[in-house]
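Course assignment 3, question 2. Fill in each field.
Student: A.L.
Task: Predict the tertiary structure for the chain below.
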Amino acid sequence: MSATFDDAVLDTLFPGLGTIPPASRAGLDASAVLARHGPVLTAIEAAAGGEAAFLAADPGRRADLLEAVGHSDPAAFQALVLAVSALYHASASVVEAYGWVARAPQPEGFAVEAPTDEAEAARLLGKVRARRQIWRA
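Answer field:
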């Protein structure tokens, strides 16, 4: 499979939206994942009539081809999607585009504010107070 074909498949799975980058521009190193799922990529290529045909297809046609392959071998296709999804959603550029912080929580930690609404705070703490002791004395 060529890098451009792989990128086209990745972008069909995760096309991005607005500031959220498509998979091919999210800084993924998906080569190992794609190698493990080679039979699915081969099925996509065959369904399209070759890599060039897949690359020439519009995004709707590409999505239809992936859907067809997904119906022909759901377990293998789902495994590919889940593996790529894990990489994509762990990518720093995607995490930051979601508005999250792309760093480890420690040692800096994250700022957590107390609820500003007294009634909401009382409701949340009420659940804790209503529960029995969950530790040994």
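Instructor remarks: The chain is about 60% helix and 0% strand. The mean pLDDT is 90.
Grade: pending
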